[in-house]
Amino acid sequence: MKQLRNIILVITTLFIIAGCTHKTPYTNRSQMIFMSSEEELALGEQSYKQALSQAKVVNNTYDSKRVKAIGEKIAAAANRPDFKWEFNLVENTAMNAFCLPGGKVVVYTGILKAAKNDAQLATVMSHEVAHALARHGAERVSSSKIQQGIQLLGNVVLATTAPEFTNTFNQAYGIGTELGVMLPYGRLQESEADEIGIYLMAKAGYNPYEALNFWKNMSDGKESTNEFFSTHPSSETRIEDIKNVITKMERK
């Protein structure tokens, strides 16, 4: 009876989760999110403070002022007055940037090697802002919870029917969900952030064709990677997808 109650509890939880659907901006993709916006924003604020406390923030330089000016234009285009926008340049050689829930944007100095003008810098910043607008972080957390629930359900069922296969199931499930669900899911979110980012940077007044040059710069001197084992699409794929997004945008 206890195992039966566990099965019922898991199934009920999954149905509740399935009811928490949202739509992404611009792309209108259906999402399953069961973290509240308030929880997400609080987590973003906390993570942002922690990140800055461990970083060397660059202030009052030409590039730090560029980051803030470009960020303000993108924030205006995003039209999220509930976000408490902040834009900071951080001393770090990694070619990276990120945006936490609530509009907390951090740009690493390393990315300036690939972002050779304001429009190219707007490309990466719009991409990161798009992640926050589309609530990709909360969506990943929700997806992980669902996977855990399904795995629990599988273990409960096997415990009553074929307990000798439990370890094999868990190993196969872990590998299968990583390669068949989580990595493709990550690539989907990255491509979606690229698309939303193109709309944002264009709305903010930047030339979207510079996004193509940015990703070409990012791929210079690097070997092409196998997307199947990556959370990110290759630069070649991104460039082709962005071309399609720009064409679609210009037809509207």
Number of helix segments?
A: 8
Q: What ranges have pLDDT less than 50 throughout 5 or more consecutive residues?
A: 168-185, 226-230
Domain count: 1
Radius of gyration: 21 Å
Structural class designation:
alpha+beta
Strand order of the largest sheet: 3-4-6-5
What is the rounded distance between the termini? 59 Å
Biggest pleated-sheet summary: 4 strands, mixed
What is the typical, i.e. mean, pLDDT? Answer: 79
The number of distinct β-strands equals 6
Outline, from the CA principal axes? globular
Overall description:
The protein is of the alpha+beta class and 252 residues long. It has one domain. Helices cover 63% and strands 9% of the residues. It has eight helices and six strands. Strands 3-4-6-5 form a four-stranded mixed β-sheet. Strand 1 and strand 2 form a beta hairpin. Helix 4 crosses helix 6. It is globular. The termini are far apart. The relative contact order is 0.12. About 9% of the residues have low confidence.
How would you concisely characterize the structure shown here?
The protein has 252 residues and is an alpha+beta fold.
Key words describing this protein structure:
252 residues, alpha+beta, 4-stranded mixed sheet, 8 helices, globular
